[in-house]
Amino acid sequence: MVEGRLSLEPEVKQIFQSIDDGRNFLLSGGAGSGKTYSLVSVIRQVIAENPTAKVACMTYTNAAVKEIEERVNHKNLNVSTIHDFLWDNIKHFQKELKEAIISLANNEDVSRISIDEVSPIPENYFDILPDGIQYKEFVRLREGIISHDELLIVANYLFEKYPKLSSIVKDKYKFIFIDEYQDTSKAVVDTFLTHFKKSERKNIIGFFGDAMQSIYDDGIGNLDEYKGDDADTVNEVPKKQNRRNPQLVIDLANKLRTDGITQEPSTDPNAPNMVEGVVKQGTVLFLHSTDGDIGKVEKFLEENYSWNFNNSKETKELNLTHNLIAGKAGFRTLMDIYDKDHILSFRDRIKKYIKDNGITTDFSENTFGEVIQMLQQGKSGRDLNAVSPTNTMQNFIADNAELYNSALELNYSEFSKMYVDKDQLLDDKKQDEDDENKKGSKRDNLIKHLFKIQTNISLYKNKRYNEFLRATDYRFRITSIASKRTLKENIDNLANVGDKTIEEVITDANEKGICMIDDKLIAFKEKKEYLYNRVKNVRFSEFQKLYEYLEGQTPFSTQHKTKGTEFDNVLVILDNGGWNNYNFGNLFLETGSASVLDRTQKIFYVCCTRAKENLAVFFHNPDAQVIAKAKVWFGNDNVIKIE
Q: What whole-number distance in Å separates Cα of residue 283 and Cα of residue 73?
């Protein structure tokens, strides 16, 4: 046995057998199995046995990148996100990059990459770009700027077309490991498992993950089509232990798994789910009521099971969507502005009509109202309906007449380009205050500015004065005791927001030198006047509620965002929030569309396996069949009606 391998866990020994055989491998492990521990063990041993070889490790989040870098600090290890890895390996081939984007944009089958102004796009279209093709957080194809989605398509195209590119990467990295493979795009997996075969060079690709935790629609989900017993297929190594969950949660999770892996409690006496060599039992509860009052559910858990919903590190309530959380967490108005504005839905309906009907009229000098008038003129019946608001849109317009009239006066060209999405409000959600902020948040510049104001208020209130002074724009004005006193008065006055609107607080913070209005905010007000005018009248105290939620200071989280984390107590709210992609009733009855059932089963599996001690599931008004199935899964005594 090679030195150092004797002490490795059995699954890692199997991986090294694959490596010795020159075979790509997949470590499949359920929730809490210690996949990251295995990944780190593999990296360390690979470096020990191949001291001159370069190793690449890709994962999905910057937090995971940081964790792996901290556990294995070595000059030959390159840890990055998948997007950064791909970009680093193609960015120098500018001629080929330009050709790839033009070719893909001219291909009608590739909907993600299109440049509407020119058709077909000439070969020299990007020749005048001063900085060549660039990869950023946003996409502007006309300027040669691609973002995350386009990068994956372009990289796949280049690796497929140029086998030499695969040879270059294989020569550079003898080992490439991909963590959380199930969330990886199929285009990326094809690059490493199909296009790489066109190169004669040798290297090892290793995947780590869990098919049951593939909860994003753009991920590959599983490697079934690549697995096998032949030398050129991927060798699967299952990892069955569970180090996180108590026995009752493991039992429930095993009833949900569909991939043949049955998890067992870890035999390691030091595993988190063990006490004095015995696995914890934990609790699993299925709670239901007819009135849907989650406050009663929380009270029941606090009084009978000592849960503490004020401790966001210890206890989490998992909802399917941010929309389901917005009302409870206190930022409903802001959520509706960014996610349910039906004037913007009507604008998009008009835009789509213009595009679908090939209308080439120059509307750059017209208002939104004039464009509607021109399109509706002379039409009746179905033709008129196509350029009129739907009933939902009309109801919203009737309720917001002043807002609609202001939209009608806006320049159509500017208004049509204004992009509004809930990610601009909600991106970069933390599970708790100690989480890292991720790189490349999608928050817009108005929300970023409000964050700066509230961060300054929070730093001051928490007596973190040095950090406050570094963050605030006031630091250059502190020259005396008197100026310190003025600062205290200013921040106290600003912090006492009362019923002040967002615009009043922005103005206040600027005038007091706590957070100056910068060019980014000025540009936002000009380019997104409509959105700014909606947000500015919301109370700043509502933004503060949003801030607390996004900074992990509340017990609320979405079910998708909780993946990869763990908490003592987990309450799962089984409500699909009107989202047809999920159906929790059908999950228990095992009926309905196979894709919806699969998607719902996986998100439920992920939620349940976050619990380190206690799990509770709440279902509003389930029918008798759901309750009967819950008794099978949770046990008779654990299915409780909340009165």
A: 39
Report how far residue 490's alpha carbon sits from residue 139's, in angstroms, rounded to the nearest whole number. 40
Beta bridge partner(s), residue 319? 558
pLDDT at 500: 94
Q: Which amino acid is at 204?
A: I
Averaged over successive runs of 10 residues, the pLDDT of the chain (643 residues) comes to 83 97 96 93 96 93 80 93 95 96 90 79 88 88 91 96 97 97 94 95 96 92 93 95 96 93 91 92 97 94 96 94 93 96 97 93 95 96 96 96 95 93 86 63 90 89 80 63 77 84 94 87 94 96 95 91 90 90 94 94 96 97 96 97 93
- Token digits for 513? 């030198």
pLDDT of the residue at 506: 96
Q: Specify the residue for token string 């870098």.
A: 69
Helix (H, G, I), strand (E, B) or coil at 194: coil
Residue 574: HSE in the Cβ half-sphere, 13 Å Cα cutoff: 25
| Inter-residue long-range contacts of 289-292, CB under 8 Å, 24+ positions, other chains counted | 289/618, 289/620, 289/621, 289/641, 289/642, 289/643, 290/620, 290/621, 292/620, 292/621
Burial (CB < 10 A; 0-12, 13-18, 19+), residue 88, is middle
Helices (H) and strands (E) in the chain, counts: 29, 18
Half-sphere exposure of 630 (CA within 13 A, CB side): 25
> What pLDDT is recorded for position 476?
55
Asked if 227 and 195 count as a contact pair (C-beta separation under 8 A), the reply is no
* Alpha carbon distance, N-terminus to C-terminus of the chain: 63
**479/83 Cα distance (integer angstroms):** 47
Contact 633, 278 (CB under 8 A): no
Q: Measure the CA dihedral 177/181/186/188, to 10°.
A: -30
**Helix 35-49 vs helix 10-20: crossing angle, to nearest 10:** 40
Q: Please give the pLDDT value at position 458.
A: 87
Enter the DSSP assignment of 436.
P
Which residue has tokens 């089958």? Answer: 109
Helix axes 247-256, 624-634, angle to 10 degrees: 130
DSSP string computed for 570-603: EEEE---TT-TT--HHHHHHT-S-HHHHHHHHHH
**Cβ neighbours of residue 270 closer than 8 Å, sequence gap 6 or more:** none
Angle (CA) 285-290-296 rounded to 5° is 60
Residue 3 burial (CB count, 10 A): 8
Taking the CA atoms of residue 414, residue 416, residue 421 and residue 424 in that order, the dihedral angle to the nearest 10 degrees is -10
CA atoms within 13 A on the CB side of 366: 12
Residue that has been written with the tokens 């500017």 in this structure? 414
Tokens of 617: 């599931």
Neighbours of 551 (CB within 10 A): 20
Q: Give the span between the Cα atoms of 553 and 547, in whole angstroms.
A: 8
Phi, psi for residue 390 in degrees, rounded to 5: -70, 175
Q: What is the residue type of 222?
A: N
Q: Cα torsion at 167, 172, 177, 178 (round to 10°)? A: -70
Give the number of other CB atoms < 10 A from CB of residue 300.
Answer: 19
In whole angstroms, give the CA distance from residue 487 to residue 493.
10
Residue written as tokens 């490697």? Answer: 223
Instruction: Quote the CA–CA distance of 349 and 175 in Å, as a whole number.
Output: 49
